[in-house]
Amino acid sequence: MPLTMNITFCCPGSTAEPWLLGLRAALPQAQVEVWHSGAARADYAVVWAPPQQFFDEQPQLRGVFAIGAGVDALLKLRLPAQARVVRLDDAGMSVQMAEYVCQAVIRHFRELDAYAAAIAQGQWSYRKPRKRADFPVGVMGLGVLGTRVAQALAQFEFPVVGWSRSARTIEGVRCFAGAAQFKDFLAAAKVLVNLLPLTPDTQGIMCLDTLSQLQHGGYVVNVARGAHLVDEDLLALIDSGQLAGATVDVFRTEPLPPEHRFWQHPKITMTPHTAARTLRDESIAQIAGKIEAMERGEPIAGIVDPVRGY
Ligand SMILES: NC(=O)c1ccc[n+]([C@@H]2O[C@H](COP(=O)([O-])OP(=O)(O)OC[C@H]3O[C@@H](n4cnc5c(N)ncnc54)[C@H](OP(=O)(O)O)[C@@H]3O)[C@@H](O)[C@H]2O)c1
Predict the structure, then answer these.
(1) For residue 310, which atom of ligand 1 is closest to its CA?
(2) How far does the centroid of ligand 1 lie from the alpha carbon of residue 195, in Å?
(3) What is the per-residue DSSP string for 9-55?
(4) Is 100 helix (H, G, I), strand (E, B) or coil?
(5) Which of 195, 210, 286, 304 to mutate to test the pocket of ligand 1 (most atoms within 8 A of CB)?
């Protein structure tokens, strides 16, 4: 590895010091510094939500490592032509996403909110058990996170269907692919879990038309990006009784503005974009491993296709 290798860190809003210490320990030959305007030109960057000015001043970058799985915001910027964008693949996120989605689906299926409300009123009462077969779960996006989620749901013996751009085979999951099979996928699902990347093709994909095609009494779990969902359409379908409710972790504007109807809606469960957090130690180990592989000229996983958008 060349002695001159420079790594710049640009994650406004994150505490830089532990990342710098971790990256320096993992790559002792590298100079690792926080980016500031006028900083030395670097070979690699570790970023989250960098400004355009960052890329304008770093024309030599060969690798840009996003410390998350979604790269939609990054791809809106003008990047140096030769720079490859690399997303984290898994790095401890898929197990978090699986536990989050399973709890959302199970909480809905087992009516745990209704039990909690009854208990809060001092009532010891039972509800009729529901049939798992009546709650097929559809997972949109069968990538790193969606595959793990679909497999975890199948472990709980829910019927699971999945949808992706290209055909996939996952044990225990009935897979659909491409626009031609989207209607059949929706019709086969009662609970819809979104784990698509945000691209021009997937923006607003959960709208009146598509959500109406879910089985009656459907439920939505959005854990990908806020812009996948048309909020007013979801609210209209819940208020009309067509959908039973939703669990939402991601929003068009974050933090969600105080006047937004999701805050008070009794059938919407919200969390503040926390379904799968970036784990620093796992991420540093992965980024360091990929930089070393790139330096050796070896192929690495997780390179983003800027045309495809993910
Ligand atoms: N809430 C959170 O805390 C949190 C945390 C991390 C990530 N996320 C979100 O989760 C998303 C998914 O992450 P990931 O790592 O699983 O992504 P990924 O590995 O890139 O997988 C994306 C999947 O979506 C499919 N897809 C893409 N465009 C499609 C289209 N037009 N039609 C049908 N399927 C399409 C892909 O199909 P192919 O298999 O054919 O390529 C692939 O199966 C991220 O982009 C991010 O937005 C949220």
Answers:
(1) 20
(2) 5
(3) EE-TTS-HHHHHHHHHHH-TTSEEEE--TTPPP-SEEEESS--HHHH
(4) helix
(5) 195
Q: How far apart are CA 4 and CA 25, in angstroms?
A: 16
Report the distance separating Cα 190 and Cα 229, nearest Å. 17
Among protein residues, the one whose CA lies closest to atom 4 of ligand 1 = 276
> Are the CB atoms for 67 and 88 separated by under 8 Å?
yes
Q: Where are the beta strands (DSSP E) in 61-177?
A: 63-66, 84-86, 137-140, 160-164, 173-177
| 273 in catalytic set | yes
Angle (CA) 288 294 298, round 5°: 120
* Distance between Cα 28 and ligand 1 center (Å): 34
Contact 270, 262 (CB under 8 A): yes
Instruction: Beginning with the edge strand found earlier in the chain, give each strand of the sheet holding 31-34 in spatial order.
Output: 31-34, 6-10, 44-47, 63-66, 84-86
| Separation of alpha carbons 215 and 31, rounded Å | 55
Residue 286, CA distances (Å) to 66, 112, 120 in order: 11, 38, 45
Per the residue annotation, which of 168, 265, 273, 280 is the catalytic one? 273
The tens digit of pLDDT for each residue in 50-96 reads 999 999 999 999 999 999 999 999 999 999 999 999 999 899 999 99
Q: What is the pLDDT of residues 141-188, one digit of tens each?
A: 999 999 999 999 999 999 999 999 999 999 999 999 999 999 999 999
**203, 227 in Cβ contact below 8 A?**
yes
The rounded Cα 264 to chain-centroid distance in angstroms is 24
Q: Which residues pair with 175 in a beta bridge?
A: 162
